[in-house]
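request received
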Amino acid sequence: MFKKLEEVKELKLKANEVRQELIKMLAEAGSGHTAGPLGIADILTVLYFNVLEHDSKNPLWEGRDRFILSNGHCVPARYAVMALAGYFPTTELKTLRKFGSRLQGHPDRIVLPALEASTGSLGQGICMAAGMALAAKLNGQMHKIYCMISDGELDEGSTWEALNACHRFKLNNLIILVDRNNIQISGRTEEVWPLEPMKEKLEAFNLQVYEVDGHSIPGLIHLLNRARNREKTQVIICKNTPGKGVSFCQNYTWHGKTPTKEEAKLALHELEEERKKILKEN
Ligand SMILES: Cc1ncc(C[n+]2csc(CCOP(=O)(O)OP(=O)(O)O)c2C)c(N)n1
Ligand SMILES: [Mg+2]
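response:
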């Protein structure tokens, strides 16, 4: 837990660094997803630097919390955070999507076990997370399972099957974070496949649901930590802006495209300006 302003500022700077690394690696790769990863950078920063029990030097430590990224296409954000957290050198980020790299376009647990699960086939990661939560309970283990799902994944029947299992098996060790960025591959979610009223639907599955600004570092710290010891499965709907931090990446057309070298320069300039602003904050 935190509470000090200095810690919040440090995390804001860290999330800014994550976004800068993201832009550089995506431009270098020349293919991949931009809007989603930029949008979840604050959440993943708070997770890895404030919430998760983990050890980058001993990634498979038995007592670690598990984090499953069900929306696997957003993994570049996770790679950037993991590099900054010491799992591997930041220079490795340049290998994103290259043959032989551990940093594949979607998480590959075979080559990078710290990813916990190979995901990218939407609607599957949450099923694995529910299974891991059940296994931990059966084994009497105390670690928590955090799982991020996207709003697009709420179009999938398998997601709702997993959510339905949470109450049945009393998975109070499972914390679900919804990347509610209002976009999916081909448009705005409410135009493609309406999801509202999302909170009420999730509550009807007997889950405890909260909403938070997905870019509020203090809000995320509070809710993500508080979720650890509750009676029911916790769902935190994180209201995110896709492409957050880069003014021209904030709509669905940036779901699966990367900045050109020129666009990357502009993006890095914007992020650098934001960094200077954060530095001046009290
Ligand atoms: C089972 C499955 N169906 C289709 C896809 C192709 N696909 C990849 S991302 C995506 C959009 C999903 O929406 P969301 O995760 O909300 O996208 P974002 O907010 O990151 O743009 C789709 C349909 C997939 N990866 N898996
Ligand atoms: Mg989405």
